[in-house]
Design goal:
Layout (H helix, E strand, L loop, with lengths): L1 E7 L5 H16 L3 E7 L14 H9 L15 H5 L3 E4 L2 H11 L8 E2 L10 H21 L1
Helix pairs in contact: 1-2, 1-5
Length: 144
């Protein structure tokens, strides 16, 4: 089983949406891939209430994706990078500096998308951007 790791700042909104949507679609496609997600700076999520952002939960429900057992945000660790086949950070402008600071040896070894957080882009737009990236990724993995 190949593992993909989605990274964002708080592991509360963007990466959690990506993880759950990817796993649902990968299972439907019969792909040998499983996604997980982590945060690079959980301490910045002091205003995050509950296990997952309501925007992510609502967008997943709208797409008929069932959330697995609730879990709270988790911080990225060296082990997460070592055990993943692919790692994707969701906003290069936001996450490359965090990677350089906290996991410099991995900063140039991972992929970056450009999906901004709620302070710069509405949840609807950001989650649609993530969905488009995920659909392209699933298609790419299905062909390889």
């Amino acid at each position: 089983m190949n593992k993909i790791l989605f990274l964002c700042t708080g592991n509360y909104y963007r990466s959690r949406f990506a993880e759950n949507l990817f796993n649902w679609l990968a299972t439907k496609q019969g792909l040998d891939w499983q996604a997980d997600s982590r945060g690079l700076a959980l301490e910045r999520g002091v205003n995050n209430v509950g296990a997952i952002s309501r925007y992510a939960a609502e967008a997943l429900a709208l797409r008929l994706v069932n959330l697995p057992d609730e879990r709270f945000p988790l911080a990225a660790s060296e082990q997460d990078f070592q055990s993943s086949t692919r790692v994707i950070a969701l906003d290069e402008l936001e996450h490359r500096p965090l990677m350089n600071e906290r996991f410099p040896q991995w900063a140039d070894a991972i992929e970056y998308w450009l999906v901004h957080d709620i302070d710069k882009t509405s949840a609807t737009v950001a989650l649609e951007q993530i969905e488009q990236h995920i659909l392209q990724l699933i298609e790419q993995l299905a062909q390889s």
